[in-house]
Amino acid sequence: MYEDYIYGMELKHSKHLCSVTVGYLTAEGANTISQVKCLKYLTVSELSCKTLPETISNVWSLQALRVNHSYSLRELPQSIGKLKNCNEITMLPNSIGKLQRLRTLNLSRCEELKSLPDSIGDCQMISSIDLCNCEKLTVLPDSIGRNEKLRVLRLIFTKIERLPSIITTLRNLECLDLQGSSELVDLPEGIGNLEKLQVLNLKDCKKLGGMPIGIGQLSRLQKLGLFVVGKGEKFAGISELANVSRIGEELRIKGISHVLDPNDAHMACLKVEIENKLTEVGPKVDD
Predict the structure, then answer these.
(1) Residue 260 needs a FRET pair 20 to 30 A away by CA distance; which of 21, 122, 129, 165 works?
(2) pLDDT by residue (tens digit) across 124-148?
(3) pTM for this one?
(4) Interior CA angle at 35 toward 34 and 38, to 5°?
């Protein structure tokens, strides 16, 4: 019986209880646990059900959920996404790849998360991945290139240094938000292949050395945030900026001193300025 493991009614009045370990969990037991106000850590063993009870998602303070030896468990409840404070997660299990119907993965503010498992590429239906404020995240697996339905990828305030080149094959990607990724040094070649991309937010990417050639092919781009004129021919020239005509928010341009032909800068910047979208050009280019 469930009562052999925890004293149900007493749990409701446990003001300082932050950790619970149970041998098995029923819907009634999950409902009782959900009323523990300060619960941070929950360990469940030997589940005989195919899914966790829905009410487990009502534990707003939960930071860690550990499920052991639960061979019948097939899926997590849809409402599991309501858990907002799981900020001590360091990694996801490889078994996440078995969640064939998973559409949204929100791990924002998981400050200890260092990487995603390769099996993330097996989540064929996933359309949105949010890794904002995952401050220890430095890389993405190449397997993310298999997430063909991915539309939104948020990497705000991560420590990503480089994106895998295969990301340029994600033809359905509409939003790639890298704002505040202070360690980002470059973008992959072929980014112009992302024909549906509307947001490529590079605001405050302080180490970005330049833009990849072909960025001007992003004809649907509406938000960029930052355009860096890199030094050398391997980077896109500022003239490509003239082809991105839909940008509707402020745009900062860095490295304008690297422009070889002042006419390119004049024409590109003029087109943006006419639409009242240019906020900062940087050092003035002599005519």
Answers:
(1) 165
(2) 999 999 999 999 999 999 999 999 9
(3) 0.69
(4) 90
Same domain, 16 and 45: yes
Number of domains in the chain: 2
Q: Of the candidates 25, 27, 30, which has an alpha carbon nearest to the alpha carbon of residue 48? A: 25
Place of tokens 């180490």: 207
C-alpha span between 158 and 116 (Å, rounded):
13
Residue 46: left if φ>0, alpha if ψ -120 to 50, beta else—which one?
Answer: left
> Any idea what DSSP says for residue 254?
E
Structural domain containing residue 194? 80-280
Q: DSSP of 59-81, one letter per residue?
A: -TT--EEEEES-TT--B--GGGG
Percent of residues in the chain assigned helix, strand, coil, to nearest 5: 25, 15, 60
Report yes or no on 286 lying in a domain: no
Q: Identify whether residues 72 and 95 lie together within a single domain.
A: no
